[in-house]
Amino acid sequence: MKLLYVLVLLAMCRSAAGSIEAIKRLYSDMFGNYSTKMRPVYNQSQHVDVHSRFNLVAITEVDQVRQILHSYVLMNLTWRDEFLTWKPEDYNGIKFIHPPLTDIWRPKLIVPVSLEDRDVFKDETSAITVNSEGRVTWLPGANFATDCKLDLTLFPFDDQTCQFRFLPVSYFSNELKMVSTLISAGTQAYTENGEWILSASRAYTTERTFVDSTFSFFYVDIDLERRPMFFVLNVIIPVVVLSFLNIFVFSLPCDCGEKVSYAITCLLALTVFMSIVSGLLPKSSDNIPMVTLYLTCLLGISVLSVVATILIVMKDPAKANKKTPQSPLFVIPLFCSLPFPGSRRRIMDQVQLDSKTNGLAGSGNPTGKLLEGRSSSGGYCVTADSLCMVIFTVLWMAVSLGFFVQITQ
């Protein structure tokens, strides 16, 4: 039994020694005369096909102010190296090797629209594998900071399209061609973003000519859909509520002392939200966001309401310590008007107590005090407060409905 163990151990040692010697001999035969300066084809008039697969791992940030897309990408590049082929049976059955990146030819890809280093795949720690048929698989990964033109017209209900471009530098299209393995980006390892939804993607290759030189490009387009609930709950709804509350300034009596301060408080609140929204949007005039136009309209309505409130308070006789209440703005005839809450106001009956002059003897109003909502001409008295409340309510509804109809189309 002990002899059997010894024989097995000797066989394992011989196999391990044989594998080590075989891989040493393989590396010596493959890389003895290998040069990374030449394209890996014997016929240099032929082009090398680089099959590319774009794998989006994560979208870390979409900088809306600077219009930059930050993401992490893992590429899968495959090509055939005719200089690295062998028969596995001649090397103890070895079918794969993992040479250092500096010892093998690789297509040097750059990102032309990168806002940082264009050579994003210069990391020497990425994995590379070569099989016995000369098929090379390279898996580089990098953090990207690429330019992404954003159209924020429908912000925060907008969809954006960002593009990745890859160019094999130093090689023309007749020397190296990019081939897309998939028609879309790989998302098997994609991590969901809290602000954006990856709705679709497209991967394709094309050739472009620059100054009589044609290059093969690899393009990847990704469609992003914004998650709007955060902005809706924190900006849109508070702005709508504040602008609606601003209308009720005309329901306050002039002698309460808080009429103007209430209007100014609503104006300042809208101004604060305007500053919050402006900090989220790019400093560009190409596409004006509709939410900015909506807030600007609400700000204008608030300013007009403050001006109207100040004028109403200035014209109020009670502010001048007079005993007579505010006179009506005009009178709507009874046959063409309908009563509504807030439109009636007590007015002083300026008729004399003398029944001969007023013709109201025995009418039950011998002191000539107040007649509610009625004028001596037989109509409803509409005050400045009531009229402004109706006008600003209609204006607020028109602006708000127009905004919501536009962003939901």
pLDDT under 50 segments (min length 5)? 3-18, 320-324, 326-380
Oligomeric state of the chains present here? single chain
Mean pLDDT: 79
Number of helices: 6
Percentage of residues in DSSP E strands:
25-35%
Q: Helix proportion of residues, in percent?
A: 25-40%
Radius of gyration: 40 Å
Describe the sheet with the most strands.
Answer: 7 strands, mixed
CATH homologous superfamily heading of the largest domain: Neurotransmitter-gated ion-channel ligand-binding domain
Overall structural class, as computed from helix and strand content, comes to: alpha+beta
Descriptive overview:
The protein has 409 residues and is of the alpha+beta class. The chain has three domains: 31-227, Distorted Sandwich (Acetylcholine Binding Protein, Chain: A); 228-326 and 383-409, Up-down Bundle (Methane Monooxygenase Hydroxylase, Chain G, domain 1), CATH 1.20.58.390; 328-353 and 369-382, no CATH class. It has helices at residues 2-31, 229-247, 259-280, 290-314, 355-358, 384-407, and strands at 48-63, 68-80, 96-97, 109-110, 127-131, 135-139, 141-147, 159-168, 176-180, 196-210, 213-226, 330-333, 346-348, 370-372, 379-382. Strands 1, 2, 3, 5, 6, 7 and 9 form a seven-stranded mixed beta sheet that branches.
Chart the SSEs and their pairings.
Layout: H1 2-31, E1 48-63, E2 68-80, E3 96-97, E4 109-110, E5 127-131, E6 135-139, E7 141-147, E8 159-168, E9 176-180, E10 196-210, E11 213-226, H2 229-247, H3 259-280, H4 290-314, E12 330-333, E13 346-348, H5 355-358, E14 370-372, E15 379-382, H6 384-407
Parallel strand pairs: 1-9
Antiparallel strand pairs: 1-2, 2-6, 2-7, 3-5, 4-8, 5-6, 8-11, 10-11, 12-15, 13-14
Helix pairs in contact: 2-3, 2-4, 2-6, 3-4, 4-6
